[in-house]
Write a structure and sequence with these properties.
Elements (H helix, E strand, L loop, with lengths): L12 H4 L6 E4 L19 H10 L5 E4 L6 H9 L2 E6 L2 H10 L7 E5 L5 H15 L4 E6 L22 H16 L2 E11 L2 E3 L2 E3 L1 H12 L2 E11 L9 H10 L8 E8 L2
Parallel strand pairs: 1-9, 2-3, 2-5, 3-4, 5-6
Antiparallel strand pairs: 6-10, 7-8, 9-10
């Protein structure tokens, strides 16, 4: 039996850096390298870094449905994982590619609507062939939170959907397309926050989790609550936000959810 006093001999140095708690309190956004915080709504690099370390190994391939400013891609490069990503924002794809002029890994970013199955499958088959693999090893998605932030003016952009049921249908379709290219027994993570609309909380995170559980043969392996203290939207003006909350009847959002699933099919 392993005893607490000698557990360190059974855990590698890399494993010691992995956070297995269900509450992640992060003091500030990770900095350095190609990381940046110039794209409103992007997530902090510690999230993909931790998930990639936990659920993949070197030379594995990570699939991402919403590349955004490239946060996950840069973590993949630092951790020696290959990458396939999707986005429909032309300018941000160009910015990311400019940062990856001398890549240390194999990577592809597709300008493609992830809800368009025909185009998505075509892009994936092309990328998998180029990488000489048949499936990916981990899937991550940080979707828009309904229409809270508009990323493009394109009709297919999920950030232009205001109706909850329509949003969930489209997001589930995108996840369905991606899961076909995730190997059986592998893991995927959805990063999602709640929103405040029409004077009430919309628990978008739990609606998303429930939609995935109802639609796919997956096991829910973790619900992680993440809080970062250095939220730039409230940095230096916390007292103002607190005053507004006190004078009203709501609470300040400081959390996001990371839902981790295991694919069973």
């Amino acid at each position: 039996m392993i005893q607490d006093n000698n557990i360190d001999s059974y855990i590698s140095e890399e494993e010691k850096e992995i956070n297995v708690d269900s509450l992640w309190i992060i003091n500030e956004r990770g900095k350095g390298g190609k990381r940046s915080n110039v794209y409103h709504g992007n997530f902090i690099p510690q999230i993909p870094n931790q998930l990639i370390r936990r659920y993949t190994k070197e030379n594995d391939t990570v699939l991402e449905l919403f590349t955004g400013s490239g946060t996950t891609l840069y973590e993949c490069e630092d951790l020696n994982r290959n990458y396939i990503g999707f986005d429909i924002n032309d300018s941000i794809i160009n910015d990311v590619n400019q940062k990856m002029l001398s890549p240390k890994i194999k990577y592809h970013i597709n300008n493609c609507d992830v809800t368009n199955r025909k185009n998505f499958v075509s892009c994936m088959n092309k990328d998998l062939q180029a990488m000489n693999i048949s499936k990916t090893d981990f899937l991550i998605a940080h979707p828009p939170y309904l229409d809270i932030i508009h990323f493009t003016n394109k009709a297919e952009d999920l950030s232009n959907i205001s109706d909850l049921n329509t949003f969930l249908d489209k997001l589930t379709l995108a996840i369905s397309n991606a899961l076909d290219f995730l190997d059986t027994g592998k893991y995927f993570a959805i990063v999602m926050g709640d929103i405040y609309k029409n004077s009430e909380v919309i628990p978008l995170g739990f609606y998303t989790m429930n939609a995935i559980k109802k639609t796919f043969n997956v096991k829910l392996k973790g619900i992680i609550v993440k809080n970062i203290e250095g939220n730039r939207g409230k940095l230096g003006v916390y007292n103002i936000w607190k005053y507004r909350a006190l004078k009203s009847d709501y609470f300040l959002f400081k959390h996001e959810y990371i839902f981790v699933f295991k694919k069973e099919f």
